[in-house]
Specification:
Elements: H1 3-27, H2 34-49, H3 56-77, H4 85-103
Length: 113
């Protein structure tokens, strides 16, 4: 599965799963929220495993930038808190970093070359 598809879907699943736990623990929602939340978190893990890379850590590291962007979007759309310029600048930096990690040419790196 292409990372461009897996990462946004994984972010949605992770945020949904984490929010279900947040809603139960912090907002007093029914414990029944935990069942779909745990399923969403399992889906999140499965989606990350679909990214085509030889190292899981690289897939997870690159995903981090996408997760940050999705979290800022969630803050705006679901929580009504508009991102400020620092949120947007930080998000842009993270996405550039994620792109570098994911698509950089790989080879042997010796003595800084």
């Amino acid at each position: 599965m292409p990372a461009a598809l897996a990462y946004p879907l994984a972010a949605l699943a992770e945020i949904a799963g984490c929010f279900a736990i947040w809603a139960w623990w912090r907002l007093g929602a029914s414990p029944l929220w935990l069942a779909p939340g745990l399923l969403a978190l399992a889906l999140f893990g499965w989606l990350l495993a679909q990214v085509d890379t030889v190292a899981a850590g690289r897939a997870f590291a690159a995903y981090g930038g996408v997760y940050i962007a999705a979290s800022v979007l969630w803050m705006w759309l679901a929580e009504g808190e508009r991102p400020d310029r620092w949120d947007l600048i930080g998000t842009a930096i993270c996405l550039v970093g994620a792109a570098i990690i994911l698509v950089a040419p790989r080879g042997t790196w010796r003595n800084g070359s």
